[in-house]
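Lab meeting, action items carried over

1. Structure of the two-component assembly. Owner: GW. Status: complete.
Input record:
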Amino acid sequence: NAGVTQTPKFRVLKTGQSMTLLCAQDMNHEYMYWYRQDPGMGLRLIHYSVGEGTTAKGEVPDGYNVSRLKKQNFLLGLESAAPSQTSVYFCASSYTTGTRSRELFFGEGSRLTVL
Amino acid sequence: AQTVTQSQPEMSVQEAETVTLSCTYDTSESDYYLFWYKQPPSRQMILVIRQEAYKQQNATENRFSVNFQKAAKSFSLKISDSQLGDAAMYFCAYRSFSRAGSYQLTFGKGTKLSVIP
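Predicted assembly:
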Protein backbone atom coordinates (compact mmCIF):
# COMPACT_ATOMS: atom_id res chain seq x y z
CA ASN A 1 0.00 0.00 0.00
CA ALA A 2 1.88 3.06 -1.28
CA GLY A 3 -0.35 5.78 0.24
CA VAL A 4 0.69 9.15 -1.18
CA THR A 5 3.60 9.16 -3.63
CA GLN A 6 5.38 12.24 -4.94
CA THR A 7 7.73 12.43 -7.90
CA PRO A 8 10.38 13.61 -8.24
CA LYS A 9 11.89 13.67 -4.73
CA PHE A 10 14.57 16.19 -5.67
CA ARG A 11 14.96 18.65 -8.52
CA VAL A 12 17.23 21.53 -9.38
CA LEU A 13 15.98 24.13 -11.85
CA LYS A 14 17.32 27.27 -13.41
CA THR A 15 15.31 30.47 -13.18
CA GLY A 16 12.67 30.54 -15.88
CA GLN A 17 12.47 26.80 -16.43
CA SER A 18 9.24 24.91 -15.99
CA MET A 19 8.46 21.66 -14.27
CA THR A 20 5.64 19.53 -12.91
CA LEU A 21 5.41 17.72 -9.60
CA LEU A 22 3.21 14.64 -9.61
CA CYS A 23 1.24 13.40 -6.64
CA ALA A 24 -0.50 10.04 -6.72
CA GLN A 25 -2.65 8.47 -4.01
CA ASP A 26 -4.12 4.99 -3.92
CA MET A 27 -6.61 5.49 -1.07
CA ASN A 28 -9.51 6.75 -3.18
CA HIS A 29 -9.44 10.09 -1.37
CA GLU A 30 -11.55 12.94 -2.68
CA TYR A 31 -9.51 15.79 -1.27
CA MET A 32 -5.94 16.53 -2.29
CA TYR A 33 -3.62 19.38 -1.32
CA TRP A 34 -0.28 20.90 -2.21
CA TYR A 35 1.72 22.61 0.55
CA ARG A 36 5.10 24.25 0.61
CA GLN A 37 7.38 24.23 3.63
CA ASP A 38 9.94 26.95 4.26
CA PRO A 39 12.16 27.39 7.31
CA GLY A 40 10.34 29.17 10.11
CA MET A 41 7.08 29.30 8.14
CA GLY A 42 5.48 25.94 8.76
CA LEU A 43 3.46 24.48 5.90
CA ARG A 44 1.43 26.80 3.72
CA LEU A 45 -1.33 25.73 1.37
CA ILE A 46 -0.72 26.42 -2.33
CA HIS A 47 -3.71 24.82 -4.06
CA TYR A 48 -6.20 22.12 -3.28
CA SER A 49 -8.81 19.96 -4.97
CA VAL A 50 -12.13 18.69 -3.65
CA GLY A 51 -12.60 16.20 -6.45
CA GLU A 52 -11.72 15.16 -9.96
CA GLY A 53 -11.78 18.12 -12.32
CA THR A 54 -11.91 20.76 -9.57
CA THR A 55 -9.17 22.93 -8.09
CA ALA A 56 -9.00 25.99 -5.87
CA LYS A 57 -6.43 28.46 -4.59
CA GLY A 58 -4.91 28.28 -1.16
CA GLU A 59 -2.87 30.76 0.81
CA VAL A 60 0.12 31.12 -1.55
CA PRO A 61 -1.04 30.24 -5.10
CA ASP A 62 0.94 32.77 -7.17
CA GLY A 63 3.37 31.24 -9.64
CA TYR A 64 1.78 27.79 -9.50
CA ASN A 65 -0.88 25.95 -11.44
CA VAL A 66 -2.56 22.64 -10.70
CA SER A 67 -4.66 20.04 -12.42
CA ARG A 68 -6.75 17.09 -11.24
CA LEU A 69 -7.68 15.18 -14.38
CA LYS A 70 -7.86 11.86 -12.54
CA LYS A 71 -9.07 11.31 -9.00
CA GLN A 72 -5.85 9.67 -7.92
CA ASN A 73 -3.48 12.29 -9.33
CA PHE A 74 -2.86 15.93 -8.46
CA LEU A 75 -0.25 17.82 -10.48
CA LEU A 76 1.56 20.98 -9.41
CA GLY A 77 3.16 23.03 -12.16
CA LEU A 78 5.67 25.84 -12.17
CA GLU A 79 5.55 27.63 -15.50
CA SER A 80 8.55 29.92 -14.96
CA ALA A 81 10.49 28.98 -11.84
CA ALA A 82 11.86 31.70 -9.56
CA PRO A 83 14.39 31.46 -6.70
CA SER A 84 11.56 32.30 -4.28
CA GLN A 85 10.02 28.95 -5.17
CA THR A 86 12.93 27.07 -3.67
CA SER A 87 11.19 24.99 -1.05
CA VAL A 88 10.06 21.56 0.05
CA TYR A 89 6.70 20.65 -1.44
CA PHE A 90 4.26 18.28 0.20
CA CYS A 91 1.23 16.64 -1.30
CA ALA A 92 -1.53 15.38 0.99
CA SER A 93 -4.89 13.70 0.66
CA SER A 94 -7.85 12.98 2.90
CA TYR A 95 -11.17 11.17 3.11
CA THR A 96 -14.42 12.49 1.71
CA THR A 97 -16.32 15.35 3.21
CA GLY A 98 -19.02 13.23 4.81
CA THR A 99 -16.72 11.59 7.33
CA ARG A 100 -15.41 12.90 10.61
CA SER A 101 -12.13 12.62 12.38
CA ARG A 102 -10.02 12.69 9.27
CA GLU A 103 -6.40 13.71 9.21
CA LEU A 104 -4.36 14.39 6.09
CA PHE A 105 -2.03 11.75 4.74
CA PHE A 106 1.21 13.19 3.44
CA GLY A 107 3.71 12.23 0.79
CA GLU A 108 7.42 12.24 1.56
CA GLY A 109 8.02 15.68 0.14
CA SER A 110 9.87 17.00 -2.90
CA ARG A 111 12.83 19.32 -2.49
CA LEU A 112 13.02 21.89 -5.26
CA THR A 113 15.93 24.25 -5.72
CA VAL A 114 15.74 27.13 -8.19
CA LEU A 115 19.08 28.69 -9.10
CA ALA B 1 -9.32 32.69 8.43
CA GLN B 2 -7.96 30.49 11.14
CA THR B 3 -4.51 31.03 12.59
CA VAL B 4 -2.36 28.68 14.62
CA THR B 5 0.41 29.95 16.89
CA GLN B 6 3.26 27.98 18.36
CA SER B 7 5.16 30.33 20.63
CA GLN B 8 8.17 28.09 21.26
CA PRO B 9 10.46 27.85 18.20
CA GLU B 10 12.79 25.47 20.04
CA MET B 11 12.66 23.34 23.16
CA SER B 12 14.80 20.71 24.78
CA VAL B 13 14.15 17.91 27.25
CA GLN B 14 16.23 15.37 29.09
CA GLU B 15 15.70 11.78 28.10
CA ALA B 16 12.98 10.14 30.25
CA GLU B 17 11.62 13.52 31.35
CA THR B 18 8.34 15.20 30.38
CA VAL B 19 7.94 18.16 28.06
CA THR B 20 4.94 20.24 27.00
CA LEU B 21 4.66 22.01 23.66
CA SER B 22 2.25 24.92 23.43
CA CYS B 23 -0.25 25.76 20.72
CA THR B 24 -3.00 28.35 20.51
CA TYR B 25 -5.41 28.97 17.67
CA ASP B 26 -7.94 31.49 16.58
CA THR B 27 -11.28 30.53 15.07
CA SER B 28 -14.93 31.50 15.03
CA GLU B 29 -16.06 27.94 14.30
CA SER B 30 -17.48 25.59 16.90
CA ASP B 31 -16.67 22.31 15.18
CA TYR B 32 -13.16 21.50 14.06
CA TYR B 33 -10.20 19.18 14.49
CA LEU B 34 -6.81 19.76 16.01
CA PHE B 35 -3.71 17.72 15.29
CA TRP B 36 -0.11 17.39 16.27
CA TYR B 37 2.22 16.21 13.52
CA LYS B 38 5.81 15.14 14.00
CA GLN B 39 8.44 15.73 11.33
CA PRO B 40 11.74 13.93 11.96
CA PRO B 41 14.85 14.64 9.88
CA SER B 42 13.53 12.18 7.29
CA ARG B 43 11.00 14.93 6.44
CA GLN B 44 8.02 12.59 6.65
CA MET B 45 4.92 14.12 8.27
CA ILE B 46 3.69 11.72 10.96
CA LEU B 47 0.41 12.14 12.80
CA VAL B 48 0.98 12.05 16.55
CA ILE B 49 -2.46 12.74 17.95
CA ARG B 50 -5.84 14.23 17.02
CA GLN B 51 -8.57 15.96 18.98
CA GLU B 52 -12.16 16.59 17.91
CA ALA B 53 -13.47 19.89 19.24
CA TYR B 54 -16.83 18.47 20.29
CA LYS B 55 -15.14 15.96 22.59
CA GLN B 56 -14.33 17.28 26.04
CA GLN B 57 -12.04 14.40 26.91
CA ASN B 58 -8.38 15.00 26.15
CA ALA B 59 -6.90 12.63 23.59
CA THR B 60 -4.04 10.30 24.54
CA GLU B 61 -1.78 8.05 22.46
CA ASN B 62 0.65 6.09 24.59
CA ARG B 63 3.25 8.61 25.84
CA PHE B 64 1.55 11.51 24.07
CA SER B 65 -1.38 13.42 25.48
CA VAL B 66 -3.00 16.77 24.92
CA ASN B 67 -4.50 19.45 27.12
CA PHE B 68 -7.40 20.83 25.10
CA GLN B 69 -8.93 24.01 26.45
CA LYS B 70 -11.65 24.97 23.99
CA ALA B 71 -12.68 28.22 25.62
CA ALA B 72 -9.08 29.38 25.82
CA LYS B 73 -8.38 28.03 22.30
CA SER B 74 -5.35 26.18 23.57
CA PHE B 75 -4.06 22.77 22.51
CA SER B 76 -0.80 21.72 24.15
CA LEU B 77 1.05 18.45 23.63
CA LYS B 78 2.65 16.60 26.52
CA ILE B 79 5.32 14.01 25.85
CA SER B 80 6.06 11.75 28.79
CA ASP B 81 9.16 9.61 29.26
CA SER B 82 10.89 11.38 26.37
CA GLN B 83 12.98 9.21 24.07
CA LEU B 84 15.77 10.06 21.66
CA GLY B 85 13.45 9.19 18.80
CA ASP B 86 11.10 11.99 19.86
CA ALA B 87 13.57 14.58 18.62
CA ALA B 88 11.86 16.27 15.69
CA MET B 89 9.93 19.30 14.52
CA TYR B 90 6.39 19.31 15.89
CA PHE B 91 3.56 21.08 14.14
CA CYS B 92 0.21 21.97 15.58
CA ALA B 93 -2.57 22.07 12.99
CA TYR B 94 -6.20 23.10 12.79
CA ARG B 95 -8.68 21.58 10.40
CA SER B 96 -11.95 23.24 9.62
CA PHE B 97 -14.97 21.01 9.46
CA SER B 98 -17.00 23.33 7.33
CA ARG B 99 -17.59 23.10 3.61
CA ALA B 100 -16.87 26.82 3.38
CA GLY B 101 -13.49 26.16 4.95
CA SER B 102 -12.88 23.36 2.46
CA TYR B 103 -11.55 21.18 5.23
CA GLN B 104 -8.19 22.88 4.95
CA LEU B 105 -5.43 22.13 7.39
CA THR B 106 -3.73 25.24 8.80
CA PHE B 107 -0.34 24.77 10.43
CA GLY B 108 1.62 26.59 13.08
CA LYS B 109 5.25 27.42 12.38
CA GLY B 110 6.53 24.49 14.39
CA THR B 111 8.56 23.73 17.51
CA LYS B 112 11.90 22.02 17.19
CA LEU B 113 12.32 19.53 20.03
CA SER B 114 15.75 18.27 21.05
CA VAL B 115 16.17 15.32 23.41
CA ILE B 116 19.30 15.33 25.55
CA PRO B 117 20.74 11.91 26.46
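2. GW to write a short summary for the group page. Key points so far: Chain A has a mean pLDDT of 91. The radius of gyration of chain A is 14 Å.
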